[in-house]
Each structure stands twice: as structure tokens, then as C-alpha cells.
């Protein structure tokens, strides 16, 4: 219920804006917003809403007040796709190169010289099935919720995996080992709009399935 209340609060916030503009809005989905402040420098982040008209980097990030670099890992090639916003050169250099869908994550390098406030506005993806493949990649919760992995219904690995959270200078590492009873040193926790690395060495892909029903 607390989760539903948080998501519905976001929906009511956007609905209030629409009402103040004398518009009638109806949707079978939850429309909400997420405020995320990116510190100066490098950080991992996630977009957890479906934007209109798409989830391309230019739509999701918009027009920052300084230079910003987005780097999204490409596991097939083992390198990064990069898009840069530079106000001195007219905007994004390759905005169609990167899509930031719920469940994905990317690095953002904020070189504006100050914390960068971002606001994501869009629809919550109420039902999802996220494939966590073998090997290394960046992920996020599809639903905009905070909590530990158990509360977020992260799948229980069948073998060993590593989860890495970037802390600004390095990584906080969490290892799941079924032979030692689970996560070490503890169950990882996530904030809203957090992204993280998973190195899946269990030998099998995992499915992170979520469903958030709307209605009584």
C-alpha cells in the first residue's frame, strides 16, 4: 500500500498541474514525475518513466544548463554508446544514439560545475519483465520505487552474481553466493532513479518481473 501511495502521489501531482490548466485528462496508466539531482562529476542514473514521444536521451534529459555526457554500456560490443550535450555547439551531438528505457541505466558526466537538477515526466510502466542476461550490464528497477532488492522483488539468483553501485569515486560491491546464504555484506538498497551494474556469473539469465495493479 505504501508503494501504491507513493506512485499515486506522483500521479496526483501531475494531475493537479493539468487541472490548473483547465484540461481534462484521463489515462488508464499512472502519470508521474521524478526529481533527481545529479552531483557534479560522474554518476549512474536511471530513467524510470516512459516519456512522450520516446525515451531518447534528448527527450529524457532535455536541455541542461551546461555540458553533459551520457554513456550507455553496449554489452554486445563491450563498449559505450555516447551522446554529449554542449550548449556552445547547439545541443546534443547524437541524441538518437541512446535510448533510456525503464529498467536500463547509464553514466551521466555532469561538467556544468554545479549539481544538475533533472525532472523526468511520463507514464509508469505497470507491468514489466526485465531480462538480466549472463555477463555484465547496467540495470535499474523498472518501477520508480526505493528499497532493498527483496522489497523490489529482484529475482533470487541460482548462482553467484555481483552487484556494483557507483559511489562517485569507486564501487560498493555486493556478492550473492547461494552457498553462503545470500547477499554479502548485506542486501543492496536502491533509491529512486538509481542504476547499478550486475555481473551475472550464475550461468543462467534471470527475469525481473514486476506488476503494479491499478484499481481496487
Count of DSSP helices?
2
Main pleated sheet: 5 strands, antiparallel
Strand content: 35-45%
Q: Average pLDDT value?
A: 87
Compute the CA-based radius of gyration. Answer: 18 Å
**Which geometry do the CA atoms define?**
globular
N-end to C-end Cα span: 11 Å
Helix fraction, binned, reads 10-25%
Number of E-type strands: 16
Structural class of the helices, strands and pairings?
mainly beta
- List low-confidence stretches: 1-26
Model description:
- This protein has one domain.
- The chain is 11% helix and 39% strand.
- The strands form 5 sheets. The chain has a 5-stranded antiparallel sheet, with no helix packed on it. A 5-stranded antiparallel sheet has the order 9-15-11-12-13, with no helix packed on it.
- It has helices spanning 2-20, 57-61; strands at residues 31-38, 41-45, 68-74, 79-86, 91-92, 106-110, 116-123, 127-132, 135-139, 147-148, 161-166, 171-177, 182-184, 189-190, 196-200, 206-211.
List descriptors.
about 220 residues; mainly beta; 5-stranded antiparallel beta sheet; 2 helices; about 10% helix
In short:
This protein is mainly beta and 216 residues long. The chain has helices at residues 2-20, 57-61; strands at 31-38, 41-45, 68-74, 79-86, 91-92, 106-110, 116-123, 127-132, 135-139, 147-148, 161-166, 171-177, 182-184, 189-190, 196-200, 206-211.
Topology of helices and strands:
Elements: H1 2-20, E1 31-38, E2 41-45, H2 57-61, E3 68-74, E4 79-86, E5 91-92, E6 106-110, E7 116-123, E8 127-132, E9 135-139, E10 147-148, E11 161-166, E12 171-177, E13 182-184, E14 189-190, E15 196-200, E16 206-211
Antiparallel strand pairs: 1-7, 2-6, 3-4, 3-6, 4-5, 8-16, 9-15, 10-14, 11-12, 11-15, 12-13
